């Protein structure tokens, strides 16, 4: 940088820096040693002097010095005041003595303004507390300028008038005392017009409800500062969004004196934020609120302190949407989603319900206030009707339907996550019940049962490994002489927390998961081992064990080998093992399964049809199967009750079934026998054996052993 005839005095620069450092140290805590501060300020003094003395003047070095002061944490407003003042009073005399330029005064004013402006801008990027000090410093500078010399007025005006951010001063009544040009330009008024405005005029009904209250607390001295985003309306009626920081300036005794506002135009940033927020909270395809906005609203409703408030959710899923996507393409699918979204919004959003797209072809409706028990159902039915109208997309006419899961409950009954989980479960129920255009309502008892079933499914494999299953045996008694001729093996699950579970609570789950094969094989092996022991200890009893065989087991390629291995390991004669299959399983067999049954029968194992009469049997086909026994279904026997007109019909049915079985050379066992009267009537009809509570409940192997032992003891 070229200098004028006057040269920078290095000793003078250090003398100026020491004076500057002392002034800084007296006014604020300095996070450096005195030597470090002096070296730093000496370099800044040289830069300011070089700027004043340069042939081609530029105030940019002064701006850099202002920013550097803030970066060095020399941020007290008093530091700025002394620094600006010292530029005029000491810089030339100490650092560049003899400098004489015709525009020196103007250069000093520009350096002061640049230093102050850059310092203020840098400081504004720091904490809000620092911004308050800048505001107070600006006011003090202005107050001093009104009472001091002309150069002091110039310094203040450089800060106040030349600042790019808006600055406004108001008294405690709210009357605007002064504003800088930036603030006036922001609102589209002249400075004179602004001085005639009261702050209250700048508040509007659209402002937040607490904004005026914050201002009142400020002028009453209850607060020292307020910072917020505020919307102003320009003189032409257009909107202006600002970052507004208002500080209270007090008298020396602490009484409120006036307020200073610093205002920055953030209209473009605010508009961008609003666009980004809309994009973040709305589905780009349909324009509906997305799952994020839905959960925000739902959480707000669920946190309502009124615990007796009811909220409803309708979870909607289009039926067959995947087929439309796959056959007509995603473009048609997207257009269909847009149409459905518009219809749902028109149908229910007008009533104050929020419609959102959760993703894919799933939509959800928030019924924020359920006034009565059927409100959510009405919303669901309205939605289904809206969706069901034909949709025309190009050359395609689409027939659309949906399924809806409905949940409505008190907000105190659980959180938003639980509510949506219940809605998802209920939607699955609606889908599973078959048909299209259906809705289902949440049933907590059903959900609890399904939750238990799910837990049992998850626990089944480990239960098998840990040996949690046990087998109990229910007596099958001859109706001719009352002897114990057989027992039916019935598996139980000794669950560690739920206790002893009967088979109807887990056999179906084992079949669904494919574990029935392993479980059934274990029951077969266990039953054969127990029966083998009984046969060894009580050979004359010739007691048979009857084991249930699932349809999947019967169809297994190695079922014959499984049975043969169980008999070999246990030593049980084949004719003392009976395998029970349900009527539907037997009648559905063909091909290899039938051959497997015949191979089993050829080994001497007996085969029985369980629950006979509950399905449809092809009697001609039944004759071709190697069946030995029919077990009459419990409802037939249960119907044989005294003083019941229907018992006559039930008895005739049992009589016909017994005659039919005997005609085919089959024995008959009656299930669910609970009374002596039933025993007598079944015996009169020629039924061979009976099983039920009258003869004994399922019992542990030791109890069966005791029965066999008592049967062998001589009478008397």
From TrEMBL:
What residue stretches are annotated with the GGDEF domain? 309-444
Kindly indicate where the leader peptide sits in this chain: none
Where does the PAC domain start and stop, copy by copy?
Answer: 226-278
Q: Which residues form the PAS domain?
A: 152-222
Known PROSITE patterns for this protein?
EAL, GGDEF, PAC, PAS
Boundaries of every EAL domain copy: 453-712
- One protein family per Pfam: GGDEF
Kindly give the InterPro entries that the UniProt entry links to this protein. Answer: Biofilm_reg_signaling, EAL_dom, EAL_sf, GGDEF_dom, Nucleotide_cyclase, PAC, PAS, PAS-assoc_C
Q: Any idea what this protein is called? A: Diguanylate cyclase/phosphodiesterase with PAS/PAC sensor(S)
Q: Which organism is it from?
A: Asanoa ferruginea
């Amino acid at each position: 940088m070229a200098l004028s005839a006057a040269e920078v005095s290095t000793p003078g620069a250090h003398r100026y820096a020491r004076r500057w450092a002392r002034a800084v140290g007296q006014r604020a805590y300095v996070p450096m040693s005195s030597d470090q501060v002096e070296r730093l300020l000496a370099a800044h003094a040289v830069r300011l002097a070089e700027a004043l003395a340069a042939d081609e003047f530029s105030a940019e070095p002064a701006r850099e010095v202002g920013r550097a002061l803030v970066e060095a944490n020399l941020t007290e407003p008093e530091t700025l005041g002394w620094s600006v003042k010292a530029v005029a009073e000491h810089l030339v005399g100490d650092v560049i003595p003899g400098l004489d330029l015709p525009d020196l005064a103007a250069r000093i004013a520009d350096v002061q303004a640049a230093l102050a402006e850059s310092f203020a801008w840098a400081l504004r990027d720091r904490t809000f507390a620092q911004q308050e000090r800048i505001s107070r410093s600006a006011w003090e500078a202005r107050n001093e300028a009104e009472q001091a010399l002309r150069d002091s007025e110039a310094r203040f005006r450089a800060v106040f008038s030349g600042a790019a951010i808006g600055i406004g001063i108001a008294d405690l009544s709210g009357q605007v005392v002064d504003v800088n040009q930036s603030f006036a330009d922001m609102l589209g008024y002249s400075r004179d017009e602004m001085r005639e405005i009261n702050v209250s005029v700048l508040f509007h009904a659209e402002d937040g409800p607490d904004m005026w209250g914050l201002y009142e607390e400020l002028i009453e001295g209850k607060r020292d500062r307020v910072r917020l985003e505020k919307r102003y309306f320009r003189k032409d009626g257009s909107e202006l969004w600002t970052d507004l920081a208002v500080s209270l300036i007090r008298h020396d005794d602490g009484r409120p004196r006036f307020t200073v506002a610093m205002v920055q135009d953030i209209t473009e940033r605010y508009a961008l934020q609003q666009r980004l927020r809309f994009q973040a909270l709305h589905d780009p395809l349909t324009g509906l609120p997305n799952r994020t906005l839905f959960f925000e609203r739902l959480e707000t409703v669920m946190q309502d302190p009124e615990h007796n408030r009811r909220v409803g959710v309708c979870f909607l899923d289009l039926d067959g949407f995947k087929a439309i996507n796959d056959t007509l393409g995603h473009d048609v699918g997207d257009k269909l989603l847009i149409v459905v979204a518009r219809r749902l919004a028109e149908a229910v959003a007008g009533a104050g319900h929020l419609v959102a797209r959760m993703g894919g072809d799933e939509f959800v409706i928030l019924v924020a206030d359920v006034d009565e028990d059927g409100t959510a159902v009405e919303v669901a039915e309205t939605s289904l009707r809206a969706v069901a109208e034909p949709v025309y997309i190009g050359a395609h006419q689409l027939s659309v339907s949906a399924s809806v899961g409905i949940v409505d409950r008190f907000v105190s009954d659980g959180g938003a996550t639980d509510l949506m989980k219940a809605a998802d479960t209920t939607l699955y129920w609606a889908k599973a019940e078959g048909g299209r255009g259906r809705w289902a309502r949440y049933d907590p008892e059903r959900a609890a049962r399904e939750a238990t079933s799910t837990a049992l499914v998850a626990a089944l494999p480990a239960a098998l490994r840990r040996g949690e299953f046990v087998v109990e045996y229910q007596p099958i008694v001859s109706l001719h002489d009352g002897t114990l001729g057989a027992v039916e093996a019935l598996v139980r699950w000794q669950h560690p927390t739920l206790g002893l579970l009967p088979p109807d609570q887990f056999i179906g789950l084992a079949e669904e998961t494919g574990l029935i094969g392993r479980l059934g094989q274990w029951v077969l092996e266990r039953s054969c081992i127990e029966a083998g022991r009984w046969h060894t200890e009580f050979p004359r009893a010739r007691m048979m064990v009857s084991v249930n065989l699932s349809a999947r087991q019967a169809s297994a390629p190695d079922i014959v080998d499984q049975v043969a291995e169980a008999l070999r390991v246990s030593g049980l004669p084949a004719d003392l093992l009976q395998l029970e299959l349900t009527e539907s399983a037997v009648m559905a067999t063909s091909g290899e399964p039938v051959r497997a049954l015949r191979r089993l029968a050829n080994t001497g194992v007996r085969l029985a049809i369980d629950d006979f009469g509950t399905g449809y049997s092809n009697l001609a086909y039944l004759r071709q199967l190697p069946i030995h026994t029919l077990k009459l279904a419990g409802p037939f026997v249960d119907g044989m009750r005294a003083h019941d007109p229907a018992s006559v019909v039930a008895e005739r049915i049992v009589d016909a079934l017994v005659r039919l079985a005997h005609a085919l050379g089959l024995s008959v066992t009656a299930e669910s026998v609970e009374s002596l009267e039933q025993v007598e009537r079944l015996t009169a009809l020629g039924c061979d054996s009976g099983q039920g509570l009258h003869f004994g409940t399922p019992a542990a192997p030791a109890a069966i052993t005791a029965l066999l032992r008592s049967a062998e003891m001589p009478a008397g």
